[in-house]
Each structure stands twice: as C-alpha cells, then as structure tokens.
Amino acid sequence: MVKMKIAIIGGGACGVAAFVDLVVRICEESIQDNTELVWFEKKKELGYGLAFGTDQKGHILNTETNLMGIFSHEPGHFSEWIKERYPKLYEQNEKVFTPRKVYGEYLSDMASLFIKKAKKEKLSVSRIEEEVCELDYTDGIYELSYGESEKLCADYVILALGTPSPNTYEELMPYNKYYHSPWPGDPIVEKSKDAGTVGIMGTSLSGIDSVMTLMDNGFDGKIYMFSPDGLLPKVQPYETKPFNRKCLTLPNVHEYRRNALKKPSLKQLYWLFIKDVKLDCPDMDWQIERRFGYDALTLLEKDLEWAEKGGDPLLRMAYALRHDASTLWSWLSEEDKLHFHQWLGIHWGINRHAMPIQNAEKLQKLLKSGKLKVVSCVSKAKAVRDGEAFELKSDAGQKFEMDLLINATGSPSGLEQMDLKLVNGMLQKKMLLPYKAGGAVISSKTMQSMAPQAGSDLYVTGHLANGMLMDVNAVWFNVQMISKMTEEIVCRMLGS
C-alpha cells in the first residue's frame, strides 16, 4: 500500500501545533495505516524554535498562560502543564510573566508525547534533522530537497518556518561586531564584553529582548535603541482590566454589512474603536496618546501608572479585540490593509504587543540612569573605522557611534524581505504569491497557498501569512488557524 505522505517543515510552535493536531485527526479517522508524517527541523530539539529556545531570564511571554495551550480547544492546557511541572511558578503566575524557555519546554514535551502516541497507534513518523532548501511541484507531487543532495516526495506540505530574520543590512554581515538577530542571546553576551556602547535597531519587543540580554548579563555601558518612530511598546499589566465594548463589536459590524450590503471601511472601524475608548474614558489625554513629542521615560512612566490600574483604555481595547481582530481584518480591502499599516500600524503594534510590566520596570531604571536612550531615526546604519564601530544619525541630525550593533527590527512582513532561501526559491517558482499587505496570498479558511504553481496541497502557517491574517504573532491564534488547516488536510485525504 502506498502511504499518503505529509511533510511538516519547521519544528517550532506552528510545527508542533500542526503535528499534534494531525496525529489526533488521523488516528480519529483510523487512516494511520496509509499515512506517513515526515517532520523536518534542523535542530535536534523540537518545540523551542527561535522564539522559545532562549535561556535569557528577561525573555518572557507577554501573553497570559491560559491562552497558550497548543490544542485548539484547550487554551488552558499550558497553564495546567505548568501547574503539574512547575507548581511554584504556577502559584506566581498572577505576579510574574512566564519565561519563554518554559513554553519551549512545554512544546517539546508535547512533541515528544505525540510522537510516542503516533508510534503506539502505528502511525509512521519520521524526523529529519535537516533544513529544506528547495521545494518543487510536478504532477500533484511535491519534491523537497534537503541536506547535500537528498530528496523526498510528499503529497501534502506544511510550511511552519517560524520567525524569519530580515535580509536587510547584508553589507554589515561580514563585521564581527554586527549581530543580525536578538536571538540567541549568547553571541550578544560574548560580543558585548568589550563594548562600551551598544546600538539596537528596533524599539519593539525584539529590541527589548536585546536590552534584557545585555542587562541580565552585566553589561554596564551605554545602550541606544533606534526606530523610525522612536516608540517603545506600552506596558502589559499582570492582569488586564476588562473592556466592555459597545460599538466595535462583531454583531454591530455584521448588522452594518447586511444593511449596507458592503464591507466596512477602515475609517468606519477606526471611529467605532475611538468611540468605545471615549465611552470608557471620557477624559482621555489624547495629546499624550499620540506619543510623538514626548521622551521615552515620560511615556514609560505614564504607561506604568496605567499598568498598575489594569492598563490604559487603548491597550485594553486592543486586548479585548484579540479574538475578533482577524475577522474584522478579513473584511477590509487590500487597500485599507495597506492604509492601516501606514496610518495606524505603529499605534496598534505598541498597544497590542505590549511589554511585560517587569521588563518595563527594568527599562525605567535604565532610562533614569541615562544608560539607555531611545532615538527616532530613519537613517541607515553604516560601518565606520573599518568595521570596528557603527554609526547612525537621528532625525535631529545627531550622530551616534556604537561598538556593537544588533538588528532587532523584527520579522519583515514582505516575503521578499525574509532571509529564507526556501521562500525565495518558492517566490521565483510562483509557488508563493506575495500579498501587498504582507506575507503570502492564501485561503484564510484553509491556509492553502493560492499561488499559480502551488498545487492544491501546500499550506502556509504563522508569519508567512501575516498580511491576510491579523494576529500571526500570537501562538493561540496560529493554533486556531492550524486546526482549520489540519481539518482540511484530513478531509482531502479521506476524499482522495
């Protein structure tokens, strides 16, 4: 009997979510005898990936644990796992954010458990510790190239490639004092030992990870953080105060759609958002909420005050929308999605992806001491003194010179900007089609690639789908979408 072969490329959170859900569905349908799962991950350990493999104590989750379960209908599973595995940490959960390494351990644990379950049920599972470098599609079959010259054929392929690094600043890669990513932290620690000043390109959560790495390992020099807007994320409270939405709700927007027989515009959704915030906080200081024109310490201390009260209205509103945001996003035109990134993306990002309060308190101390400076800067970094230092110029024209430079600009939204050989090749072969708002063109219902040469059984998860889907930075959202994807795959298998 010829077995149907499903290849999963990537062993991080999305790869684990796809694997465990496939094992459940395949065994439920009793089709394990004619199915084989092949899992590609170049690292020996599954689950950790780039995001959750960090040993740095300042790298912590910014999402409550009861949303982080890897099973779509059991969001609290991770929390229960912590309760059993780390009871002391479970007891502290209301007062501390969980280290990301613990979540990586959870994912690894689930991967190992379901590999054992699969084998017990006679479901064939193969692990290949190699990176897939090329993918081709001919006559209904996908051919994966990996290693030096090895190939494997599959009927279904799932791309779970994790968090891609940007391919920007390739000209700086030869220099020893330039580091292209905030993770892993060990090279940053090593390279910062003889550095007096460190520059971090990026002021979002990735940049804050770099600051935490430096702080937690005794760096005592000057740190500069650069970004075009010069804005830090807001502060995530230990417990976010509930927000009672009255205007921007799915029932209200559904009512508009059936009455007007058209989709809502970005402008309409925006004003419903603002109306809700004004109802929640009539005396909101909108001037400071624009953020621009205030120094980082002033804004951070204001955000910390709000965090002690359960979060400011904008942050709480964004948090309350987390389960509806992707549906609202799907109703926007491609043009409106581009406008969102242009007009509102910065403010949505700092509210929706806030920093844990315990990290914010560390930043506050650094800013007060003068050891950290946040700079608005759109100039491109360049190497000076034969690569022994790097220079950036602020919007005000001030020059900054650093001994070590870290690229923490975060994962790029466009496929062309991702430092992934596999993706670059698939773009050239038209197996992936770029979406203007970011990521690949996919079916938002099944996660299938809709590119001309993709075939019917190529599936895209996580950050690669960032334009058509809204919340791909959230594990819980990816888990929900992956569950729909695996359901589609198994349905297609049953019908074949």
TrEMBL record:
InterPro entries: FAD/NAD-bd_sf, HpyO/CreE_NAD-binding, L-asp_N-monooxygenase_NS-form
Residue ranges constituting the FAD-dependent urate hydroxylase HpyO/Asp monooxygenase CreE-like FAD/NAD(P)-binding domain according to the UniProt record: 7-163
Name recorded for this polypeptide: FAD-dependent urate hydroxylase HpyO/Asp monooxygenase CreE-like FAD/NAD(P)-binding domain-containing protein
Gene3D superfamilies the UniProt entry points to: FAD/NAD(P)-binding domain
